[in-house]
Amino acid sequence: MSVSAEEIKGLQKKAWDIRRTIVETTFTCGGSHIGGSLSQTDVLVALYYKYLNVDPKRPDWEDRDRFILSKGHGGIGWASVLGDKGYFDKALLKDFNKTGSPFGMHLDALKVKGCDASTGSLGHGLAIATGLALGARLRNKSFRTYVMMGDGELCEGTVWEAAILACHHRLDNLTAFVDRNGLMIDGPTESITTLEPLDRKFQAFGWETLVIDGHDFAAIGNAIEKAWTIKGRPTVIICNTVKGRCVEMMENVPEWHYGGLNSDLRDKALACIDAHYTKLLG
Amino acid sequence: MAEGMTWTVTDGDKLTQAEIYGEVLSQLGDTYPDLIALTADLATSTKIGRFGKKYPERFINVGIAENSLFGMAAGLAMAGLRPVVSTFAVFTSLRSAEQVRTDICYQNLNVKIISTHAGISFGQAGSTHHCTEDLAVMRSFANMTVIAPADGFETGNALVAALEWPGPVYMRIGRGFEPPVYKDQNYPFAIGRAITMRDGRDVTLIGCGVGVLQAMRAAEVLQAQGLSARVLNMHTIKPIDREAVISAVKETRRIVTIEDHNVYGGLGTAVAEVIVESGKACAFRKLGVPDCFSIVGYPEDLYHHYGFDSDGIVATVGELMRLEIEEDEDWEDEV
Questions:
Q1: Cβ–Cβ below 8 Å for A131 and B79
Q2: Tell me, what CATH number does B134's domain have?
Q3: Contact A161 B99 (CB under 8 A)
Q4: What secondary structure letter does DSSP report for A114?
Q5: ipTM, interface predicted TM-score of the complex
Q6: What is the full per-residue pLDDT of chain B (335 aa) written as tens digits?
Q7: B96 close contact with A: CB closer than 8 A
Q8: I want to staple B274 with a disulfide (CB 3.0 to 4.6 A). Which of B8, B157, B205, B245 is the partner?
Q9: What is the DSSP letter of A56?
Q10: In chain B, what residues touch A123 (CB-CB under 8 Å)?
Q11: Domain coverage including residue B46
Q12: By the CB < 8 Å criterion, does B64 face chain A?
């Protein structure tokens, strides 16, 4: 299948929209986990606009592919995609974080259509995804389960419990992503708790392990498709990304793990995003 | 009860709660083709392995990884299956409390948790394996239903009821053999409805789990002393049967709760909440483990040591009988 040049352009345009929505929503909601939402965006766009077998009109369709954002703090980025896909009226995002809104910084599966699992506490998503993938097999269902973890999240021991189990059960219907932006709240992952060599760790746990540029749609597409061909074990795609991607003042700056934007900063951020994509798309 | 959902055990009065649980679960496999059983290297100890022997393709042993046990159960429920999970109470309610709360309760998933070795029923193992906190923890999780069956027969009945009950259920049972309080399974069991084991007018003994047996024994002794004790089997801690508690306040004016749990946060606290909210006072004592880490010993010795066996109950009732209770003829007017 692979991703055509034309499709890549379409996905880039979509990523442009989503990044703008993240910035706009961060402005209206008073603050968000904007850095990690911007780093994860391209993988989410590739999944939702090309690969996931989902139908926003039937969010509970039992044969849909599942996606779990284990790094649940990226909820604002995920909601921006779900709203754009038509799971709900995108205009509702203006209420993000407001009292009584269905949208808080970590999405609630019982309130947000298209959100397959309530996440936010790190280290939970992979075990849930493992259960889902095993459940699909037990029920003879062909849907695929995707889960995205943060890299800082990999400090949680529960990730590695689940990694052992997914491999033990030979869950080749499970694809995990690691949003490897290199930063956690307090600084670079490697200065706080060494995660490298990450690829060899997953390999040692029995996973098919791919390492890609998480902002390159061709690479993302090839990796997702490669995972479909792997039999007898799950696949992890370690996506090297930039926290705060496309907003220069935020790129690789730990303080932008979470932050708010006034109108000046919002305009500056939007201008940065627009300049990036104008240059890219010509 | 769903049609055709029946179970039988031979010599049920000689089996532990866990043995009856494992047996009944394995008999329900055909009734619930979507039932999937999970454990974390405790197939034998919790007896859930009996289901696994009969339905190996529907049995998952995750190894010693309780957090993934409950996370995977959530995922399996999300995939449309009906997970039943068993490990020790201490691991469910303390190590994996967050997975139970966030992955299962927050998403209101159809996961049934049957935890064994609750309270100090695994007396010799020490506090790492005791669990006198689970009722307090589980009761505080929104969407969770909490049950502590009185004996093996009730464990079977409660399991059947739990499988038909929507949303997450936590059931706690003991480890070893305790004499049953029922002669068989043929009595009406409904989640949230206390059972009056015997009526009385001087005091109400409200027990759950092994506390019901102790209360029944105490009621016999009290009767010989000329005291009439009502015994309530409060098998469901949440939602608690408020009506049964309020009737006890009105009609007996003295209440003693009995549970194999810390006196903070479990049955006694749940009953106290109802009493206080009723606007009526009554003489009241909570019996259980008195906010300490238990000493090691055989369970029956420990129940005695901490004063929630029949001797302790009788002594406590004696104390309450000596208290002056204000007679109040105007109850109906005030309510």
A1: yes
A2: 3.40.50.970
A3: no
A4: T
A5: 0.94
A6: 455 468 999 999 999 999 999 999 999 999 999 999 999 999 999 999 999 999 999 999 999 999 999 999 999 999 999 999 999 999 999 999 999 999 999 999 999 999 999 999 999 999 999 999 999 999 999 999 999 999 999 999 999 999 999 999 999 999 999 999 999 999 999 999 999 999 999 999 999 999 999 999 999 999 999 999 999 999 999 999 999 999 999 999 999 999 999 999 999 999 999 999 999 999 999 999 999 999 999 999 999 999 999 999 999 999 999 998 776 666 655 54
A7: no
A8: B245
A9: T
A10: 67
A11: 12-172
A12: no
